[in-house]
Amino acid sequence: MSKALVNMPGCTSIINLSYQDGSEGSSSNPAKYNNQNYGQLKDSHVRRGTEFVDKTFPPNNSSLGDLPKYIFIYFLHRFEQEILKRQGSSDEAVFCNKGASRFDFGQGSVGNCWFLAAISALTFHKSLMVQVVPMDQSFKDHAGIFHFRFWRFGHWVDVVIDDHLPVLDNKLLSVRSKSGNEFWVPLLEKAYAKYENKLAHLHFEHCSMLH
């Protein structure tokens, strides 16, 4: 999708007209990337009391591509509180606090300003934002699993991820929350990196999050 289209009034309606509502690829029934069903996976892990680990985008060096091989850290049994504690914060970790804003996040050690610019533009289009970032997600009974949706080649795609995130010196390697305790942007970034196959693509590719 071109930047001009993203900035046009009513762009959400134009996008959603591409597929009849309910058909696969529509906003109400996005295609499942890697055939991973978010609802089924989450329900299964919640029932068993286990944490989801994504074998299709594993939390190891293979998902870092050409980036330096930093250590992955994950939020097992509310471990997100531990990373906040290491940063000197007593705040509770949240998925999104009081709505998404362009002021929520800042660039980390990875050169991905183009990606942050795309997210910033997205926050101005609330109806489109809630399709890309489902806001009914939280760290309560999350079982380590989240999902996001991307518009690609004429249809919506739902991408499932686990919550393992790369860190350096107790800080998130890439995009991070300015408040320190919001995680919707780092998780969204990981979902896009998975969709583009490697985290390194966030550093080297200069393309829009919404094509």
From TrEMBL:
InterPro entries on file: Calpain_cysteine_protease (IPR022684), Papain-like_cys_pep_sf (IPR038765), Pept_cys_AS (IPR000169), Peptidase_C2_calpain_cat (IPR001300)
Keyword Protease among record annotations: yes
Pfam name, any one: Peptidase_C2
Key word Transferase present: no
Family note: Belongs to the peptidase C2 family.
PROSITE patterns noted in UniProt: CALPAIN_CAT (PS50203), THIOL_PROTEASE_CYS (PS00139)
Source domain of life: Eukaryota
Active site positions, chain numbering: 113
One Gene Ontology cellular component annotation held by this UniProt entry: cytoplasm
PANTHER family: CALPAIN, CALPAIN-14
Name listed for the protein in its UniProt record: Calpain catalytic domain-containing protein
Chain ranges of the Calpain catalytic domain: 51-195
One GO process term, biological-process aspect: proteolysis
GO MF assignments: calcium-dependent cysteine-type endopeptidase activity
Swiss-Prot/TrEMBL keywords: Hydrolase, Protease, Thiol protease
